[in-house]
Structures are given as C-alpha cells and as structure tokens.
Write a structure and sequence with these properties.
alpha/beta, 7-stranded mixed beta sheet, 4-stranded mixed beta sheet
C-alpha cells in the first residue's frame, strides 16, 4: 500500500527517461562465450538473440585476460584453498595471504610504499577522497571526471570546491589561485584516462602546477588520480598515465576489473596514507574484500603483464587501436584520436546514436551508446573499446559493417 504513490512517481520518471532516449534500456545477458576460431577472436551469444554471434567492442577487459586458462587456474586453485568468499571484513578475519600479496605486488608495480584493495574501483574513489577531505579542505576537480569522483566530492562536503575546464592547465592554475586562503589542505583530483573520450590528463603539467602552490596550504596540495582505464592498457609496460606522461601523482587509484579482467579496486600511496585509510575509510572497514580467488587471479595477471608476453600484448593492443582509429577516419567518421583503446565515434545526436547502436546490434557488433546526461549534450557518441584479443580480421569486420551504414 505504501509503495503505490512512490511507484506512480517513479513510473513517470522512467517514462520520461525512455521518451527522451536517456534510459539505459534492458540489459543484454551473455549466455555463452565462444573461444577464438581461425582468424577471429572470441564471440558472444546473448539471451534473446538465438545463436547469433556478437563481437564485443565495448569491454573494459583491455588485455583480454579473463578467459586465459592460466588465470582461471590460479583463481580456481585459490578457491579450493581458501573457499569462495572471505567470510568477514578485513579487520575481523577477512584478510588472507592472497590479499596481502596482491597489495604488496600492486605497490611494487607502481613504485609506491604501500597498497590497499577495495571491493571495486568506484568504491575505492569514495574510500580515498572521503577520508582525506576535512572541513578545511579545498577540492579542485576536472569537469569531466568520472561519476565516482563527483559522488565522492558530494559525500565529502569540502570547505570549497572548484571545477576546472577539461585538461585546461591554464584554468587549473587559475582555480588554484582562487583556492588559496580557503582551506588548510588542497586536493586536486582527476581521471587518468577519461573513460568517455579515451584522452588522458597531463600529469606532468598538472603536478608541476600543483607543486607551485604547495607553500600556500598548511597541509599541502595532494594530487589524486583515478587511472582505472589506464592501468594495464596504457604505457609501454601497462603502468598507465603515469608511465605515459612521465610524472607521478601522490595518490593513485586503479582497478582490477578492467584491463586485469578480474574484479576489485585499489589505491597505492605512501605507507602513512594507506595506514590512515585503513583506519578511516568506511567503504573499506565495513565491506568484505574481494575473494581470495580474485586476488590470486589478479596476481597472475600482474605476473603476465610485467613480462615480455605482457609487453607484446600491449603492442598488439596499440596496433589494433591505431588500425581501428584509422579505419573510422577513412570512412568519414569523427573520433578523438589517441593511443588509448577507448575509441569514441562522435555522433553528437541522441536519436542518431540510438539508431546506430541498433544497427550495430543487428549486425553482431556490441558498442555502447552514450547520451546525455552520461555525456554533455552535443557530445553523444558510441564508445568502442579495443581489446588485446581482437584480431585484424575482427577490426576489418567491424569497419566493414560501419562502412555499410546508410548504404
């Protein structure tokens, strides 16, 4: 009885989303994955589409690791040894040796003193920014930062908040001047790779600007970056935007659920910062960690990535990304060029984006249509994501299908 009025209000909200084309729609359900055959990579079978095979051009699994037999074997071995779940939060009895080993390896991989894993990358951003923001903290943020950063800022309620134009370092400098005198601590936060566009933050320029204002804040200027789309997919050895720009931020957030193909999030920083977060981050203290089997699988992926095989995989990923970008341009489509495997096809119209996504689905290609409010009006796009298990034949096929659009 009590839900009748609420259901009516929510139904109206849902209808408005559908009428304006802003709804996400029914989720597609994968029921089977077919292994690579011949010159083609893996194919996906979806509920409701019979035996139709799809090429997945919208996966965050940039390295194509999730179906590797050795990664699966590592996960299964840990499940047999430790069970399928941790059974408790970390400070009670949920910490196991794979968790400790993974945190140590992640810190080493990124050249930091310590690391800490969370249940997801989204939760990691909340669990880092919230505890580090005091009532006397100023937060300065890129206007296109991910939703997790936006929500973390809302939750944190800083003394003052400033938003600078996307990757505009002159505007960042202007906002830093404005921030002086408004708090003891200043946090400058950015994505590493911006997930909707595939472009990256200029860490080298950003950290230099921030260093110039260190003297103006009693508790310093702290740079935080969420490089969830960069780690494992960007840079010669997969160390992300830091490697590509040659500059490190103070606190780096990453994920195990994208390029690594597993699950979970993490942060690496100084030993003191990590110890403080373990004591103060409610998203860590009151949530179970990832499973031991997930931690073991992530450790195996790190081992592969940090090897000659990993470097070859990254080289192939870069080559397929370039091939796809060049193909889109040759067909007359607009894209945002860059070395990261997020390749946006800029449509700039909600109805046309929806139409093109439908056409691709009918022709066995999975791409993600992004409309307002996920992206600003006029920036509507189809986000394609190249993976290391895509072959040249796969890329040629997708380009052929796009080339036949409107013919």
């Amino acid at each position: 009885m009590a839900l009748e009025k609420l259901n009516k209000a929510l139904s109206a909200n849902l209808e408005d989303l559908r009428a304006s084309g802003r709804d996400k729609g029914t989720e597609k359900v994968i029921k089977e994955i077919k292994k690579p055959q011949g010159v083609f990579g893996p194919r996906y079978i979806l509920e409701g589409f019979g035996d139709k095979e799809f090429i997945k051009m919208n996966a965050n699994s940039y390295l194509g690791m999730s179906m590797r037999p050795d990664v699966i074997q590592a996960e299964e071995a840990a499940a047999h040894k430790f069970g399928v779940g941790p059974g408790a939060v970390r400070f009670i009895s949920g910490t196991h040796t794979p968790h400790i080993a993974l945190e140590k390896k992640l810190a080493e991989f990124h050249g930091r003193e310590a690391g800490m894993i969370f249940s997801s990358a989204y939760v990691t951003s909340l669990g880092v920014i919230f505890p580090l923001t005091t009532s006397e903290t100023v937060v300065v943020s890129d206007e296109l930062n991910h939703n997790c950063i936006i929500q973390a800022m809302r939750l944190s309620r800083p003394a003052f908040k400033l938003i600078y134009k996307h990757n505009d370092m002159a505007d960042l400098d202007s906002k830093m001047k404005e921030a002086v005198g408004k708090g003891k601590r200043c946090i400058v936060v950015t994505d590493g790779i911006f997930s909707m566009r595939g472009d990256h933050a200029p860490f080298d320029k950003l950290t230099k600007i921030c260093a110039g204002y260190e003297k103006d804040f009693a508790e310093g200027v702290i740079t935080i970056a969420d490089d969830s789309h960069g780690v494992g997919a960007f840079g010669k050895t997969g160390r992300g935007t830091e490697e590509y720009t040659g500059a490190k931020v103070d606190v780096l957030i990453g994920t195990l659920g994208k390029a690594f193909g597993v699950n979970g999030g993490y942060v690496v920083a100084s030993k003191t910062v990590i110890e403080y977060l373990r004591e103060t981050a409610p998203m860590y203290i009151y949530s179970n960690p990832i499973t031991c089997s997930e931690a073991a699988a992530a450790l195996k992926v790190l081992e592969i990535l940090d090897s000659e095989e990993g470097r070859k995989r990254l080289q192939h990923l870069a080559a397929m990304t370039k091939k796809f970008e060049d193909g889109l341009k040759a067909l007359g489509f607009e894209t945002i060029e860059g070395p990261h495997p997020v390749v946006p096809l800029m449509v700039r119209d909600t109805a046309e984006t929806t139409k093109l996504v439908k056409y691709l689905t009918q022709n066995g290609v999975l791409g993600t249509g992004l409309n307002f409010p996920v992206v600003p009006k006029g920036d509507e796009e189809i986000r394609f994501q190249v993976n290391a298990d895509h072959t040249e034949a796969d890329i040629d096929l997708v380009l052929e299908i796009l080339g036949n659009y409107h013919k």
